[in-house]
What we know:
Layout: H1 7-16, E1 23-26, H2 33-41, E2 46-51, H3 69-80, E3 89-94, H4 100-112, E4 117-122, H5 125-129, E5 141-144, H6 150-156, H7 160-168, H8 177-193, H9 197-206, H10 209-226, H11 236-249, H12 265-277, E6 281-287, E7 298-307, H13 310-321, H14 325-333, H15 336-341, H16 345-356, E8 366-371, E9 378-386, E10 389-395, H17 404-413, E11 417-421, E12 427-433, E13 439-445, H18 454-460
Helix pairs in contact: 1-2, 9-10, 10-13, 11-12, 11-13
Amino acid sequence: xxxxRLIDKYLSEWASRQTHKPLLLRGARQVGKxxxxxxxAESFESYVEINFEKQASYIPLFQAKDIDVKAIISQISAMxxxxxxxxxxxxxxxxVQVCPEAIMSLWFxxxxxxxxxxxxxxxxxxxxxxxxPSFGVGRIHSMFMFPMTFDEFLIANxxxxxxxxxxxxxSSRPLSQPLYEKLVALMRTFMLVxxxxxxxxxxxxxxxxxxxQEVQDDIVVTYEDDFPKYRKKIDPVLLRNTMRSTAAQATxxxxxxxxxGGYRASDVKKALDMLAKAGIVIPVTHTDANGLPLGSExxxxxxxxxxxxxxxxxxxxxxxxxDVSELTEQILTSDVTDLVNKGSLAxxxxxxxxxxxxxxxxxxxxxxxxxxxxxxQAEVDYISSYRQMVLPIEVKAGTQGGMKSLWMFMREKKxxxxxxxxxxxxxxxxxxxxxxxxxxxxxxxxxxxxxSQMNEVLKQQGLS
Length: 464
């Protein structure tokens, strides 16, 4: 069964354009790229899929000295036994990293067969792109795909009506207690199951956490099995150790020396960069946040790292520590205040949700703020923007007493608006700053289960 994805809209828009570039769908292994393309294919008269890992016989077609895409298409048609026609056929080149020449051919599809719909996808694709000379900048369109969001998880579980009720709520019309409690329960489940489509499907089928963990373990092993393919670039053991250390250090400033094996910091940094390009880890970079764009004051020497999925993070922690039963119990049974304030999972989930609801057409950056003074420790979990304003976002369950870093940041940057992501109901509150002659700081509560609605929440409250 196909579960609708946010990227479906963008894929359909690409397919409907009169002029379109070949599409490169990028993202980590098993986030649902191939399934989304096959769903898109239902809107075409015909569909041809080539998987270069399984169908190596197609590789020589792309390895001729002179690339002639019309000749390649003719040969693919003969081998597949299907006619490939511009405007009628969707051609899908899957696991394209196995055949770098096929990646290069995308440039020529744009030049010589511009009306043919061609999609390419691959896992750890960024590793292969580094070896492709003069990659077709300007002639190939990229989209970035991630694991399922909480909204997609709700849809997969048949909770569209619950989503509609949530989306209609606001600080002036919060959710009723039964609906609020149901959303919190589903968020707890989502933290454990995560958004890898196979794990979500297993949950929908069985409602068995252990069955989902088996799926997650298989995915982690698949990732680690990929690493030796790139031995010439980097030590696969270092990649594995770095990925596991990212789980242990999630949402904290990443410490290179904490990676097992005694590797040099420069080597660990290279491993992190490769895992980030592959979509397995997500960097969160410090910014001074004195204005926009946030990247103009970014400092990559201060970074936190997120794993691409909360469910996989828990499995990696289990592989590293041998036991996550206490953390699992906390997720399932803790008071919502303890669940958010203790541990890194809620903060990580918030960051991933903030990223996943953005347009997939570019690679987005995520930022945070940290005060570097030795005598004053302060950190704001995420820094974003809204209507040309810097917008601090804290992942907290408490109110004023637990948000000293946020007040300090807003005071220093002369900001009056912020967001708190929590497992509370919708709401809002003001803080009168005694250190700034009673200046009022306005905070919107955007629940963790409603991050997709953050802009709407801000708009409803007249933030401008």
